[in-house]
Specification:
single chain, about 400 residues, mainly alpha, three-stranded antiparallel β-sheet, three-stranded mixed β-sheet, 10 helices, 6 strands, rod-shaped
Length: about 400
């Protein structure tokens, strides 16, 4: 029985637990129902929230789909625009290429035309400069300048003649016999330069120790040589060239006037190669004349060498006068002259070298002893162009030896 005691106690405990459980069941059921109710309420709320979220996401997706569709449309439109723009750019590039080619051709043509125009302008400028060079009348030297240069040359010729005469007469005392062949050759030279009468008169004056004719003949040799072989020549080396150039100058003067002719002469003369004056003929005469006058080759006086030096100096001064007239005087026809012994004394162009006071027009003269200077003006008939008249204005008269001067000795 004692065993049933504890069991009774356990039963009681179990009963008590069951009663307690029975009492707690409604509460649990109610709690469960409340939980289910709450869960249902929470589930409904969550569903609504989920549905809201889903709807929100759906709306977002729809908005994104709309944006994508819009972007696709924009992309398609941009693609079409790009395609159009690409084709347009190709067309523009093609047109630009054609325009560049056209412009390049036009530029090349314009440059060529510009170059042609520049060449034409240069040619016209050169032509104008040449025309101006031919038309200019500006003189570098005046008539007075030329006259002074000729006066100085005449003085040098006189000094040379005086030197020659002094040397000859100083050497005439030599006892050395004259070489007849040399004397005959010298005499023929004197006759060729002047004439037989002058040679005879010279011999007589030398015998009488008269030096006027000797001195004047030496001056005359220089005067004629300076004029004929230096001052009046275009070219020293070729007489045909000189005559051709002189004729050309005269033709230009007749057709175009003095200024053009003188400018042409200056240009032509400047283009001639530098020429040396040939002094050999004059040196030969200067050797022959002293021999005729009695100078002896065996004397100590070295006359030929000194004569050559004097001839060279006078030749250079005569050449300078010619160059000055040819290149430095354009507006005026200035001419150097001397008077031929065949002409009678003309006081308008000549002066008595010894100023005896007996000079009269028409008197016979022996020779010129100095060069003169004159200006020449030629007048032409307008319709025909024929030479009408010539006016000569003497600036510097040529000195002459009159026969009366020798006769009065």
């Amino acid at each position: 029985m004692k065993a049933e005691g504890p069991r009774k106690y356990g039963t009681e405990v179990e009963g008590s637990a069951i009663e307690q459980t029975r009492d707690e069941c409604p509460m649990r059921v109610e709690t469960s129902l409340d939980a289910d109710r709450n869960l249902h309420i929470a589930g409904g709320r969550s569903q609504r929230q989920a549905e809201g979220m889903f709807q929100g996401q759906k709306n977002v997706l729809l908005h994104k789909d709309a944006e994508i569709a819009s972007l696709k449309q924009q992309l398609h439109a941009a693609s079409e625009n790009w395609s159009k723009l690409t084709h347009h750019l190709v067309d523009v590039e093609r047109d630009a290429g054609r325009q560049i080619q056209d412009l390049t051709y036009q530029l090349t043509t314009a440059r060529r035309q510009l170059e042609d125009g520049r060449k034409l302008l240069d040619a016209r400028t050169d032509e104008l400069a040449s025309a101006q060079a031919f038309m200019t009348t500006a003189d570098q030297y005046s008539t007075v300048d030329i006259s002074r240069m000729v006066e100085q040359l005449n003085e040098d010729i006189y000094q040379c003649a005086a030197f020659m005469v002094d040397a000859v007469f100083d050497a005439r005392d030599s006892e050395t016999q004259m070489d007849e062949a040399a004397f005959a050759k010298a005499r023929s030279t004197v006759v060729r330069c002047w004439n037989e009468d002058v040679a005879n008169r010279l011999e007589a004056d030398l015998a009488n120790e008269e030096n006027i004719l000797v001195e004047c003949l030496v001056q005359n040799m220089f005067v004629k040589w300076c004029y004929n072989d230096v001052i009046s020549l275009f070219s020293y080396e070729s007489k045909p060239t000189h005559h051709a150039l002189k004729q050309a100058w005269e033709g230009i003067r007749h057709s175009k006037g003095l200024a053009v002719a003188n400018n042409w002469r200056a240009l032509a003369f400047s283009q001639l190669k530098k020429q040396e004056v040939d002094i050999k003929p004059m040196v030969e005469r200067m050797r022959s004349f002293p021999l005729f006058c009695g100078w002896q080759q065996l004397t100590e006086t070295d006359l030929p060498a000194k004569a050559k030096e004097k001839v060279w100096e006078i030749a250079q001064k005569a050449h300078l006068i010619k160059e000055t007239v040819f290149k430095g005087v354009i507006s005026t026809d200035i001419r150097i002259f001397y008077c031929s012994s065949e002409r009678p004394y003309d006081p308008s162009r000549m002066r008595d070298a010894y100023e005896t006071g007996q000079a009269e027009a028409g008197q016979r003269m022996i020779c010129s002893t100095s060069l003169g200077v004159e200006t020449v003006t030629i007048y032409y008939e307008p319709p025909t162009g024929q030479k009408k008249s010539i006016r000569r204005t003497v600036v510097l008269k040529s000195s002459v030896l009159l026969a009366s001067t020798l006769d009065s000795e």
